[in-house]
Design goal:
348 residues, mainly alpha, 2 domains, two-stranded antiparallel sheet, 2 strands, 66% helix, globular
């Protein structure tokens, strides 16, 4: 058990480091493959130029060095991840959620539908804990109580049923979750390294590059936040049915008073605006990027539009069991994405 635990701890440090390194090379390779060097200097003209500084005789040594570098790099990323998650000024309420979710919000969702006195039971020390003002104000105070409560329950179950180890399974999943969280941060680190590499080698101004990046990236977070805040527990039998026909509130809902049928108005419901936003950006690149569309013409545009319509058809077919409001919302959103992809000026 000890060796398995040590292996898990090593993996949680190594994986984020390797993810950061692979992300850095991944962004660099994508830039090299899909950017036409129309001016000097450029990042890399080809993948051969990217790997040219690495002699064949030193390839194995370089690979071992990169693999070894993943350990201290991953450990550093892991510590930064926990600082941001638990001790930073953004830990309580978050920063551009879901970029950095607030811990207090997570705990409130975990306790939804549960009164603290129900979890306290008849023990006086528990009642004093849950009635303390810090229980609702300090996420660390509340989390320590939740953790102790879980550990006590896990110990009782493990001691009652032979061969069952709820605590060990929890610790394993706990490590996996935090490894994935740190790996998300590692992708950001890899992208930041790529940006500085691009600025240095191409000798471009950093502020305009960052402003352009933020203009396209920041709108994604409110969309994702709207999806996250819309989630809720399944409806009880005495609750009214949701207009979308779901047991979760749609992220975006638009109502149009046209084609009225009695007292009902048709609705357009968008459940996943974040995915639709990314799809729109992808279509803009698909239709306008000089690399992806080197010879634009009317015939080429028609063929590309037909290909996109096929994708939209498959998307809507996957929603066939959804309420009509959801299908209408996705159909209008996807059609708008296709229109923007075709009508926006070329990126060249």
């Amino acid at each position: 058990m000890k060796s398995e635990s040590d292996l898990t701890k090593l993996a949680r440090w190594v994986i984020p480091g390797w993810v950061a390194i692979l992300s850095f090379f991944g962004f660099t390779i994508i830039d090299t493959l899909f950017t036409q060097p129309t001016r000097q200097p450029y990042l890399f003209q080809s993948l051969t130029d990217l790997f040219a500084p690495m002699p064949d005789t030193n390839t194995i040594i370089a690979a071992l060095f990169v693999a070894a570098a993943g350990v201290p790099l991953g450990f550093t990323i892991y510590q930064a991840y926990f600082f941001l998650r638990w001790n930073s000024p953004f830990s309580r309420d978050g920063l551009l959620p879901p970029l950095l979710p607030g811990r207090l919000i997570d705990l409130e969702k975990s306790w939804k539908g549960i009164h603290p006195n129900e979890a306290a039971g008849s023990m006086e020390w528990r009642k004093m804990w849950v009635n303390d003002p810090l229980f609702e104000q300090d996420y660390g105070f509340k989390w320590r109580y939740v953790e102790l409560l879980f550990l006590e329950a896990a110990q009782k179950i493990d001691s009652t049923f032979e061969g069952v180890s709820i605590y060990a399974r929890h610790r394993y999943l706990h490590e996996i979750v935090h490894t994935l969280g740190a790996s998300i941060g590692a992708v950001y680190i890899g992208f930041i390294g790529y940006v500085f590499e691009k600025v240095k080698l191409e000798q471009i101004s950093l502020p305009p590059y960052l402003i352009t990046l933020l203009l396209f990236t920041l709108p994604l977070f409110p969309f994702l936040r709207s999806e996250e805040s819309a989630k809720r527990l399944p409806k009880q039998k005495d609750e009214k049915s949701d207009p979308a026909g779901y047991n979760q509130k749609p992220a975006m809902r638009l109502s149009f008073k046209i084609l009225r049928r009695g007292n009902r108005s048709p609705r357009l419901v968008v459940v996943s605006p974040g995915s639709l936003y990314i799809f729109t950006l992808g279509l803009i690149l698909f239709f306008n990027s000089p690399t992806l569309n080197p010879f634009p013409s009317l015939q080429d545009t028609i063929l590309r539009s037909l290909a996109v319509l096929a994708v939209i058809f498959v998307w809507l077919r996957s929603k066939k069991s959804s309420p009509k409001a959801v299908m209408y919302g996705d159909a209008c959103s996807l059609s708008l994405s296709l229109f923007l992809g075709n009508c926006l000026p070329s990126c060249e």
